[in-house]
Write a structure and sequence with these properties.
alpha+beta, two-stranded parallel ribbon, 2 strands, 35% helix, elongated
Length: 49
């Protein structure tokens, strides 16, 4: 049996502030959340570092 996991690195809320603007912030966060939800729904683990 093969197991999968999603590893999120350095997705800190402090990195997404008006003082530190990022390209397509809402889109990036939404895509990350969607991917994490799909992993969990498939019985896989999501790790945040």
């Amino acid at each position: 049996m093969h197991h999968k996991a999603l590893l999120m690195i350095d997705m800190q809320k402090g990195s997404f502030t008006p003082e530190t603007p990022r390209y397509d912030t809402d889109g990036v966060v939404n895509r990350i959340n969607c991917l994490a939800n799909k992993f969990r729904a498939s019985g896989n683990h999501v790790f945040y570092i």
